[in-house]
Amino acid sequence: MNNTAVKVHEQHRPSPRSHTRKQRKLRIRFTLGEKLLFVSFCVFVMYAAIHIVSNQVKIYQMNKDIQKLEETIQEQQKQNNDLYVEVQQLSTYERILQKAKELGLSLNENNVKVVQE
User: Fold this and answer.
1) Whole-angstrom Cα distance, residue 79 to residue 3?
2) b/e per residue 52-71 (b: at least 16 CB within 10 A)
3) pLDDT-based confidence at residue 18 (cuts at 50, 70, 90)
């Protein structure tokens, strides 16, 4: 048992060669052209992203305006239909005859002429 404890202790002890040896860090160096290419690519990606977002905002605004106009058109059509129904009700023969009597006019059948088209 004593021997195994010594072996484990020896395995964890750092070797003197690893301290004296300096490890080189591998550095990747980019050339000026590669840096410019990378920066120009990043600028292009940002420009494209901003352009896409601005187009989406314009489309959203246009859709919102279209929906408002459609709502206004529907309200106007409803109002027009209501007015048409009111005109139909007010232009009935019975109502016209009643208004004529209220104004003191009378129906004289001898003066009535039938117009045919």
Assistant:
1) 103
2) eeeeeeeeeeeeeeeeeeee
3) low
Q: Could you tell me how far CA 54 lies from the centroid of its own chain?
A: 11
Q: What is the pLDDT of residues 69-105, one digit of tens each?
A: 999 999 999 999 999 999 999 989 899 889 989 999 8
Residue 117 in any domain: the answer is: no
- Residue 37 is part of which domain span? 29-102
- The encoded tokens of residue 31 equal 């050339």
Q: Confirm whether 79 is domain-assigned.
A: yes
d(CA 33, CA 14): 44
- Whether residue 100 contacts residue 107, with contact meaning beta carbons closer than 8 Å, is answered with yes
Q: What is the spatial distance between Cα 91 and Cα 112, in angstroms, rounded to a whole number?
A: 19
What pLDDT score was predicted for residue 12? 58
Question: Taking 70 as the threshold, does the pLDDT of residue 17 lie above it?
Answer: no
Whether residue 77 is contained in a domain is answered as yes
Q: For residues 114 and 96, give the distance between their C-alpha atoms in angstroms, rounded to a whole number.
A: 17
